[in-house]
Amino acid sequence: MPFLYTLTRPVLGPMFSAYWRPRITGLENIPRTGAFLLASNHLANVDSFIIPVVSPRMVRFVSKDVFWKNGGLKGRIQKWFMNSVGTVPLDREALSSGRGALDAALDVLKAGEGFGIYPEGSRSRDGLLHKGQPGAAWLALESGAPVIPLGLAGTQNLFLKGRKMPTRYRPDMRFGAPIDLSDLPTDLSAGARRRLATDRIMTEIQRLSGQEWAPGAQPRGAGTGASA
């Protein structure tokens, strides 16, 4: 566990809670020991910062290594913050390849740690839940780590364009129960198993986040209702 994470989390957590007063449920679903994969929707850049701060266990993400190379005061702050939340730096080529990010994530899981991933692949700019990519399912099936779904709501409202200070909007963070993938048919191809696992993960994220599906993104057989 990075030293800065241990040092700064007791400070960052209360600061986040005091300023934004987030509504958080389901933290008890995160395993106390062993690897776990946290699969979340993605509404804002700040998501990768607040998730590790809120989680009772470290959740690591990957990010482009430019944040460790920038100069000046801003660069030093970025580097400090990335280290403080345990972010794994990757060069742009490895990160953009997809496989490089997945290999780094698999190493984190094999070490018995928590890793965070956005199955959509990128931030939703329209607020809708987009089609899930197979990366999260591949990691879950390769590592055997439990998948903890997370539904975020309102994090896109914490920092608004044109405002110097963050808003006082209260976001919701709903951690779901581990998703059971043990019953996936073993006679299917690896690709088919990943697709079924992805659909199951995305359906649970939608239930927790309450988002509407983007056109063509809803898995076959998934419900349309938002969670209460």
What this model shows, in words?
- The protein is α/β, with parallel strands linked by helices.
- Mean pLDDT is 87; it is low at 223-228.
- The radius of gyration is 17 Å and the shape is globular.
- Helix 3 links the parallel strand 4 and strand 5.
- The strands form two sheets. A six-stranded mixed beta sheet has the order 1-8-7-2-6-3, sandwiched between helices. Strands 4-5 form a two-stranded parallel sheet.
- The chain has seven helices and eight strands, in the order αββαββαβααβαββα.
- Helices cover 38% and strands 14% of the residues.
- It starts with a helix and ends in a 19-residue tail after the last helix.
Supply the key terms:
alpha/beta, six-stranded mixed β-sheet, 7 helices, 38% helix, globular
Low-confidence stretches: 223-228
Strand order of the largest sheet: 1-8-7-2-6-3
H-E string:
HEEHEEHEHHEHEEH
**Could you say which structural class the secondary elements and strand pairing correspond to?**
alpha/beta
What proportion of the residues form beta strands (DSSP E)? 5-15%
Q: What is the typical, i.e. mean, pLDDT? A: 87
| Gyration radius from CA atoms, angstroms | 17 Å
User: How many strands in all?
Assistant: 8
Query: Major β-sheet, in short?
Result: 6 strands, mixed
Q: What oligomeric arrangement do these chains adopt?
A: single chain
In one word, what is the shape?
globular
Helix coverage percent: 25-40%
Query: Helical stretch count?
Result: 7
Task: Give the termini separation.
Answer: 36 Å
